[in-house]
Amino acid sequence: MKLLVGTYDGAAAVYRVDGAQAVNLTAALPQIGADLSALIASPELMAQAAAVEGAGVAVAEITPELPVNAPGKILCLGLNYIEHIKEGGYDIPDYPAIFMRTRQSIMAAGAPLVRPTCSDKLDYEAELMIVVGKGGRHISEADALDHVFGYTVFNDGSVRDFQRKTHQWTPGKNFDQTGAIGPFVVTPDDLPEGAKGLKIESRVGDEILQSSNTGNMIWGAAQTIAIMSEFTTLEPGDLIALGTPPGVGHAKKPDPRWLRPGEVVEIEIEGIGICASPIMDEADLAKAAE
User: Fold this and answer.
1) pLDDT tens, 257-277?
2) Residue of 93, 149, 191, 225 with fewest CB within 10 Å of its CB?
């Protein structure tokens, strides 16, 4: 099932996407609410949602919202594609780089991805993201995919000079409104096991920035869930980003390729969809809010 959380005609709702049309599940089943939390918590409600019939709304007329409005944790994996590791000048690790993002750093697909006033080194990172369904601790790799509610698209926008100010990547990965998520969440039954073998790409207009395949990840979805649950209890609605392939802006030769205000960056994953974000300068965003 392909799901979309969004606003149409002034009301936020959960939609089931069928091609270019979307059926309002919240209108049919009010207990679903305005994000995916209730569906994640209830397989029975998911079964009811699959059977909902009704007139559709054009997907293009729905403004995306975050799939989960208040995720408990946003866990991120770094250095998960060998060629990306090499372009960054790192050694291939035995254990993945792991960092966390704050709620303020993420936003829905379609919302501006903000270049901060203190830096012009805003980079893009195309990533597959897991929406955790069933929680747990010490989850085995063999059982890990049973804990996936769905998969979505993530742009791990990174402010590179701040990322490199410290051995911990936290500053460069947590500027407000730099991590775009969505707009679609696709359940595992509609994708290959572990969402492997999917084309993943980033681009601005006709300029292809990254192009790879999720089958090239060192740590796949199952391994990552097992690794994360060794040190923290995963909870329903947690988000886990799985790292980016080669082609990021800071590694472009002869000059880095930073995102610039006025551009629209698109992240596309085969079978899931496109996460598009207009780039806006922080100062211009503040003026627009006045």
Assistant:
1) 999 999 999 999 999 999 999
2) 93
